[in-house]
Specification:
Chain lengths: 272, 413
């Protein structure tokens, strides 16, 4: 049997299952309206078809996955185009630009808005569209330069505060918590989570981790000798962190899978 | 008889509901007659108003001395209500409630809205008047009133002085090292395994006659990781043009696609092969995360690129992309600054650039004075941070002095 024939048989089987599922889900609908039951039956069956089509990618690429992918990409692109028009042009520009346009689109006109200033980003946006005309396409570089330069400049202070200054500030933790001397520490040593020993240990791990992690990301010196040892400790701490993050995120992904399985076995097959 | 009883009960319930409604009225300043009669607390004293510093001109700082009955005795104050108006003689209905604070608090930052059609609009350069009431259990003091005060926007935000200091230090270091690089002084950069593998990966693709897939991630053109990725894309495009291999660059953002097209075109031009550049090699897919991933996965499985390079801003799609690349048998080099996604790249890819190594990669590849100087300045800034942490912690351990947070915490003065 050639692969084309096998695909045709498979498509026929899928179509038959689709039809049977649609009929059965329509028949078991809870609404009084026949149209609503038929529509809901189709939607559930189609959602199952798309779910299983995407899952089929785990085996290998196939026409069902290609269909689901193309549908997904096409709908998303179309949705974002409409969303971009209604949220940016109609939501942002029209209320500031023109009273009559605002009335046409049924959005409240902003009396005290900066009616002149709004045209600056409009001009930049139009300049960006000159890319479509090869002769004057070079003009779009001005808009691109403004976008990259402005966002990089605005992000500078934001990231400097959040990713550098705040991190450095939060690294100043006490290395000896409630310290009353070695004797007192030894006498009261315990593994209680809110105890002195665990608090001191946690703070030292954070301190060593920060210092060695920073050493690892030092590019100006070769990692040899004591510097190399600190760098190696840093990468080990990073990898332990990655492992914990990996396990935590996988739990979240499994919960997404559980949601899909619940839909298949619950809403479709009514087993759950 | 039963009808009379029914009529009586209906009238009684109507009267009671009206009484209840009157007591649970809205947040507008209630007339004092509606409050449960009781002895009111003493008002707060010494109400002072001034423009809120470090803002855009729509804020007033309100301060007062605590009421003598604050938290004390039968007339205990439980909160303070702050009201604002455009005129000192306005009727009660025109006094807008700005906020409420609990007992013991003697200041309030009234941050109004900047839009004139918003209910909480606070105009700038306009006389404003304030009243502060000490509120007890069902009673309220007479108002402490003050005004006029005007809100102004400020040119300088003093809360961001630490950022300014670090920017100035970084600028000085950057200029110094760029000048050193331009003078030909060798600035050492330690080797990065992932970057050294790019040349080898492009060579592999050329030998196999398969394309290279370069994914910039799902960030916008303003994300730092995407900007760093553009620089590396330019280098990769140049190498690809020299080796006469093909390249696929699917993009999630139209602006990113535009910049990527310019970058790749420039790379081909630098290699002396502008004619070999294909506009279709850099294309826009869609603006949503998972449809984009579905399309890129399909491309990987169908085109079977020899090399996949994932450099930029990634989220949950990182493992989807990397695992599909493994299925296709590609050599994979990845790099992102998203700590949550690095584990997936480390597990599924052959080489991974961790965090800042992505930013350093562009300097390492091109060895341009501008990029090298910036990289060295970053290193020195890190060294300063290391020394700061170590020195100030040692100060705290040996002397107990808590000067640590002062240089960095807000407000600075």
């Amino acid at each position: 049997m050639t692969s084309k024939t096998a695909m045709r048989i498979l498509t026929a089987i899928v179509a038959l299952i689709f039809l049977i599922s649609w009929i059965m889900k329509s028949g078991s609908g809870m609404s009084d309206s026949a149209f609503t039951n038929v529509r809901d039956g189709f939607l559930v069956t189609f959602a199952v078809f798309l779910t299983l089509s995407i899952f089929s990618f785990l085996y290998r690429d196939n026409p069902f996955y290609k269909f689901a992918e193309s549908l997904y990409v096409g709908i998303s692109a179309g949705y974002w185009m409409c969303y971009g028009f209604w949220s940016t042009v109609v939501g942002n520009f029209v209320p500031r630009a023109s009273r009559s346009l605002s009335e046409f689109f049924h959005v409240p006109y902003q009396e005290h808005a900066d009616h002149i200033l709004i045209y600056i980003p409009i001009i930049f946006g139009l300049i960006l569209l000159t890319r479509l005309l090869p002769k004057i396409g070079w003009l779009s570089r001005w808009s691109l330069a403004f976008i990259i330069g402005a966002t990089a400049g605005l992000n500078l202070t934001r990231y400097l505060r959040s990713d550098f200054i705040s991190q450095v500030s939060n690294s100043f933790i006490p290395l000896f918590v409630d310290w009353k001397g070695v004797g007192d520490f030894v006498n009261h040593i315990s593994l209680a989570a809110d105890g002195q020993f665990i608090a001191i240990l946690s703070n030292w791990v954070i301190f060593v981790g920060v210092m060695c992690g920073l050493v690892y990301f030092f590019f100006s010196k070769e990692h040899k000798g004591a510097f190399g040892v600190a760098s190696r400790v840093g990468i080990w701490i990073l990898m332990v962190t990655f492992g914990a993050s990996f396990g935590y995120t996988v739990m979240g992904r499994i919960s997404l899978l559980v949601g899909r399985i619940t839909f298949l076995f619950g809403d479709w097959l009514n087993i759950l | 008889m039963k009808y009379i009883i029914l009529l009586f009960l209906t009238c009684l319930s109507l009267c009671l509901s009206q009484a209840i409604l009157a007591q649970t009225a809205s947040s507008d300043p209630p007339a004092e007659a509606a409050l449960v009669p009781s002895e009111p607390p003493a008002p707060p004293g010494n109400l002072t108003l001034k423009d809120l510093p470090n803002d855009d001109g729509h804020g007033i700082a309100v301060k007062w001395d605590l009421s003598p009955d604050d938290g004390a005795g039968a007339k205990s104050v439980i909160s303070y209500d702050i009201y604002r108006s455009l005129s000192p003689d306005a009727p009660d209905s025109l006094w807008k409630k700005a906020g409420t604070v609990v007992l013991g608090v003697k200041s309030y930052a009234d941050k109004g809205n900047r839009e004139s059609d918003n209910d909480d609009y606070l105009p700038k350069k306009t006389n404003l008047y304030y009243r502060v009431y000490a509120v007890g259990a069902g009673v309220r003091s007479v108002a402490a009133a003050a005004g006029p005060v005007q809100a102004y926007d400020n040119w300088f935000n003093t809360l961001k002085v630490p950022e300014l200091i670090f920017c100035v230090v970084f600028l000085i270091l950057t200029v110094r090292f760029i000048n050193m690089a331009k003078r030909g002084i060798d600035l050492y950069v330690r080797p990065l395994a992932g970057i050294e593998a790019i040349d080898e990966a492009i060579g592999r693709a050329t030998e196999m006659g398969k394309p290279i897939l370069y994914c910039l991630g799902i960030g916008t053109a303003g994300d730092i990781a995407t900007i760093a990725s553009f620089t590396i894309l330019g280098r990769v495009a140049r190498k690809v043009a020299e080796y006469q291999t093909s390249m696929i660059v699917p993009c999630i953002d139209p602006i990113v696609m535009t910049i990527a097209q310019e970058t790749v075109k420039a790379g081909y031009a630098d290699a002396g092969r502008p004619d070999a550049y294909k506009e279709d090699s850099v294309y826009y897919v869609t603006s949503q995360q998972f449809p984009y991933v579905a399309a890129v996965n399909g491309t990987i499985i169908r085109e079977k690129p020899a090399t996949n390079i994932y450099l930029g801003y990634f989220l949950a799609e990182s493992l989807l992309l990397a695992e599909t690349g493994v299925m296709a048998g590609s050599i994979q080099i990845a790099g992102t600054d998203q700590v949550s996604q690095l584990p997936f790249f480390v597990v599924a890819c052959d080489y991974t650039l961790l965090g800042e190594e992505l930013y350093a990669a562009s300097a390492y590849l091109g060895r341009e004075p501008l990029l090298l100087g910036t990289l060295k300045a970053q290193d020195y800034l890190k060294a300063i941070a290391l020394v700061c942490i170590f020195a100030l912690l040692a100060l705290r351990v040996f002397t107990g002095a808590d000067v640590i947070h002062k240089p960095f915490d807000m407000p600075w003065w």
